[in-house]
Amino acid sequence: MVRPSGPLFGSVNIKGAKNSVLKLMAATLLAEGTHHLHNVPDITDVKIVAELLRRCGVSVSFAGEGHVIIEVPPTEKIVPRASLELVSKIRASVVVMGPLLARCNWVELAQPGGDDFGSRPIDYHIEGFSALGATFSERDGYLFGRTEGLTGSRVVLEFPSHTATDNILMAAVLAEGRTVIENAAREPEVIDLASMLISMGADIRGAGTSRIEVQGVPKLSPADHWVIPDRVEAASFLAAVAVAGGEVFLRGAREDHMEMLLRKVASVGVHIETTPQGILAKSEGKLKAVDVSTLPYPGVATDYQPLIVTMLSVADGTSVVSENLFSGRFRYVEELRKMGADIFTDGHHVVIRGTPRLKGARVQASDIRAGVALVVAALVADGETEISGVRHIDRGYERIEERLRALGADIERRSAQDLTGCADVG
Ligand code: EPU
After folding, report:
1. Residue 116 has what pLDDT?
2. 115 carries an active-site annotation
3. Residue closest to 78 by CA, chosen among 47, 112, 106
4. CB atoms within 10 A of CB 387
5. What is the pTM of this model?
6. Which residues form the Enolpyruvate transferase domain (predicted)?
7. Which residues are annotated as a binding site for UDP-N-acetyl-alpha-D-glucosamine?
8. CA angle, residues 363, 368, 374, in degrees to nearest 5
9. CA 239, CA 409: separation in Å to the nearest integer?
10. CA 234, 170, 44: angle at the middle one, nearest 5?
11. Contact 25, 70 (CB under 8 A)
12. Using one digit for the tens of pLDDT, what is the confidence trace for 164-180?
């Protein structure tokens, strides 16, 4: 339940990046021994990947304050399988494929389905592993991958897919010889994964550029790694202060990871100051229209899109937002309309005519970012907004309501039921 609360003030610690930590946890499969991950957010997706690793024979323990200890057994004790039960909960479980193929020479994975924002195939992953010498077959909804031993190769991605880049990179580090990934994703989380793999003994060059070169090594050692801050979480708090007004310091947020977004947010009318410790956002709640297109990094990320549309719903003027990554990622727009937003959808574009305030309504979160965008919208909606499906938000945000409340938001969690369960997005 959210009520309009006026301006937000204070400081919020930005947690570790969901879209990095899930891959880092999978990467631990590459080396026997005890790994330490720090700055791990307490979110549902991390718990699901922990369960996935446990079913592979790995021990995962949460030592508190974001410290996770992962003990990976010798190869013969690893069970390289990901069941439908877990894969259907989290699509990102596909990232165990690369490490398991590299380590065990086979993998069995339930076929990930579509999700709440459209079809998300894994053909680039499969093509990449095939180039490294794996073969695949399908039976009863499961995908079986096998190899006599991966060998380095040239992989050209049709699109700079984030998770395909991560997955192929993890397969290549233990492959024999040299792999080159062309048209690689350049996301900061890819760099984070590469830097952890390098600290484990991998030979990787070019992470963060479109061409990643990997010289395979026979063995890696366990990692001790700090997860980078979550740029989408930082953007979510930024959107909250943009619409509600106020002054909030996003402690730990990295300007160099979200440059393009910060430029857009500044042109909307939010004052941004960057420091080595984080980002200060100030807003009077008076926003201006702007046009935005989502693109792979370093462009404006698709994950920011629901937050941007929400900000523009209360901006002065008409904006056009184009979604270029996920065809179905405008489903939440219907919920914003229930709150009085004036938005028209046309294919992968939305036209938003800004209105000064929204109105409270009963709305439903359909995925992580859509859910948090509804929370942001509710901060400037007169009356009460009841958001159901909060479990989606919990997949990617640690105690969002407590942290917003600490900044002055009038928000409470009413149903304990929303703390459990999960769905397939992210
Ligand atoms: N694609 C294919 N085939 C593939 C892989 C991707 O056609 O084999 C297409 C997708 O359908 C999409 C485009 O390529 O149209 C880009 O998808 P990408 O693979 O880059 O997305 P992803 O790696 O599956 C990650 C994040 C998403 C984020 C996207 C884009 C994780 C776990 N997820 O997904 O995060 O939106 O990159 O940056 O890293 C979220 O956090 O809420 C979330 C959805």
Report:
1. 57
2. yes
3. 106
4. 25
5. 0.95
6. 3-404
7. 91, 303, 325
8. 35
9. 13
10. 40
11. yes
12. 999 999 999 999 999 99
State the binding site: 18-19, 91, 303, 325
pLDDT tops 50 at residue 192:
yes
Please give the Cα distance from 309 to 333 (Å, whole number): 8
Q: Count Cβ atoms below 10 Å from residue 76 Cβ, excluding itself.
A: 7
Inter-residue contact 357 to 364 (CB < 8 Å): no
Torsional class of 345: left (φ above 0), alpha (ψ -120 to 50), beta (otherwise)? beta
Q: Cα-flanking dihedrals φ and ψ of residue 241, to 5°? A: -70, -30
For 379, phi then psi, to 5°, come to: -65, -25
d(CA 122, ligand 1 centre) in Å: 9
Class at the top of the CATH hierarchy for domain 18-226 = alpha beta
Residue 313 has which token pair?
Answer: 């719903």
Find the mean pLDDT for residues 244-252.
98
What is the spatial order of strands in the sheet that 106-110 belongs to? 81-82, 106-110, 142-146, 135-139
In this structure, are strands 246-251 and 8-13 parallel, antiparallel, or unpaired?
parallel
Domain ranges of the chain: 2-15+229-411, 18-226
120 lines ligand 1 (CB under 6 A): yes
Q: Do domains 2-15+229-411 and 18-226 have the same CATH topology?
A: yes
Average pLDDT over residues 344-360: 96
pLDDT tens-digit map of 47-62: 999 999 999 999 999 9
Kindly report, residue by residue over 65-81, the tens digit of the pLDDT.
999 999 999 999 999 99
